[in-house]
């Protein structure tokens, strides 16, 4: 047992998603990633065109289902594949690709309720933008939250508006903060996505993003490495020599620094992302995902450290 750390599982020194799920449901639970056929206001011209500079043609849903299939078929095909590894599991429907609150309310209800009605589904995780949840959708999510284990995943990426402009994010930090407040008024759990290695960002800037998130009423976090995917705006920058990619050692260092200042109660849903081999331009070391995760474990152990070791704010978070 690590002195001072409350959420230890196996050799992990951070509050893992797996630990949270096993404590809550008492069994293996995995996400089934759905592509519900949405688009994005930063693609269709409502906010902007072209999307975020890192966003793939699948809308960051590269491992989600085939959007040409109906939702039930997607769900069953992915579930069947996952069950080869984990039998007798429960499922969370993960609306992953593009902006999953960007549609009329009745359309959203139909899609969410379709997945929620599938056997052994114990929750939903809905990925969206903080500038794209209307009041009536917030109220429906609040009602949904009374019936299932609901997470709303919000892309922040960076607290620095200058960076947001560079990556064509289409909104600033204020929009994110306002959306978190509206969700938390309704007792809805929030997962924030941040990206390390964005253009122009220093170690201190990335750490400032984590510090700001640590002070907010946020229940979960996904920490991503910037991947450069073929066909994106960043791919053009990389090929022209205008973009420097993170080195593996630098990524491990910043992730450990960030974990140390996050509250222990905050669930860590992810510590690095995935990129499709055929489309990934770099960093290529990221393809060895387990080596990266093992290196993070090793570095925390070497430091005799853990998530929240240097978290100083006296604040309780509501984790359902």
Written description of the protein model:
The protein has helices at 17-25, 71-83, 105-116, 135-145, 161-166, 173-185, 203-214, 233-239, 248-261, 289-303; strands spanning 29-34, 90-95, 121-128, 149-157, 189-196, 220-225, 228-229, 267-270, 280-282. The protein is of the alpha/beta class. Strand 3, helix 4 (135-145) and strand 4 (149-157) form a beta-alpha-beta unit. Helix 7 (203-214) runs parallel beside helix 9 and helix 9 (248-261) crosses helix 10 (289-303). It starts with 16 loop residues before the first helix and ends in a 17-residue tail after the last helix.
Topology:
Elements: H1 17-25, E1 29-34, H2 71-83, E2 90-95, H3 105-116, E3 121-128, H4 135-145, E4 149-157, H5 161-166, H6 173-185, E5 189-196, H7 203-214, E6 220-225, E7 228-229, H8 233-239, H9 248-261, E8 267-270, E9 280-282, H10 289-303
Parallel strand pairs: 1-2, 2-3, 3-4, 4-5, 5-6, 6-8
Antiparallel strand pairs: 7-9
Helix pairs in contact: 7-9, 9-10
Structure in a nutshell:
By secondary structure, the protein is an alpha/beta fold.
């Amino acid at each position: 047992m690590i002195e001072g750390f409350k959420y230890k599982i196996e050799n992990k020194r951070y509050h893992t998603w797996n630990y949270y799920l096993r404590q809550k449901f008492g069994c293996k639970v995995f996400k089934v990633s759905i592509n519900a056929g949405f688009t994005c206001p930063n693609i269709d011209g409502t906010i902007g065109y072209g999307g975020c500079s890192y966003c793939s043609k699948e809308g960051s849903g590269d491992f989600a289902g085939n959007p040409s299939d109906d939702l039930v078929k997607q769900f069953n095909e992915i579930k069947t594949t996952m069950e080869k590894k984990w039998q007798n599991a429960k499922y969370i429907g993960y609306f992953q690709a593009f902006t999953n609150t960007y549609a009329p309310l009745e359309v959203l209800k139909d899609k969410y309720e379709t997945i929620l009605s599938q056997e052994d589904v114990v929750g939903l995780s809905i990925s969206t933008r903080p500038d794209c949840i209307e009041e009536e959708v917030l109220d429906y999510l609040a009602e949904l939250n009374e019936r299932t284990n609901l997470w709303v995943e919000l892309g922040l990426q960076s607290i620095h508006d200058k960076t947001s402009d560079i990556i064509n994010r289409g909104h600033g930090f204020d929009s994110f903060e306002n959306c978190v407040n509206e969700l938390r008024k309704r007792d809805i759990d929030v997962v924030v996505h941040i990206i390390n290695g964005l253009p122009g960002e220093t170690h201190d800037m990335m750490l400032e993003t984590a510090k700001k998130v640590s002070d907010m009423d946020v229940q979960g976090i996904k920490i991503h490495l910037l991947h450069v995917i073929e066909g994106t705006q960043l791919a053009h920058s990389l090929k022209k020599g205008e973009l420097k990619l993170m080195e593996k050692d630098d990524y491990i260092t910043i992730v450990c620094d960030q974990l140390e200042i996050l509250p222990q109660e905050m669930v860590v849903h992810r510590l690095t992302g995935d990129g499709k081999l055929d489309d990934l331009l770099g960093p290529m070391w990221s393809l060895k995902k387990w080596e990266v995760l093992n290196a993070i474990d090793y570095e925390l152990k070497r430091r005799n450290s853990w998530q929240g070791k240097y978290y100083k704010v006296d604040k309780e978070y509501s984790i359902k």
